Amino acid sequence: MSRILDQRILLLVISFSVSLQSTKVLSEWKKCGDPECEKAMSRVQAITDYLGPDCRYLNFKAGEEITVYSKLSRENENLWTGSKGKDFGYFPRDAVKVEEVLIGEEVEVLTKETDFLCLHEDKYTFE
Question: Which Pfam families does the UniProt entry name for this protein (predicted)?
Answer without folding.
Answer: SH3_2
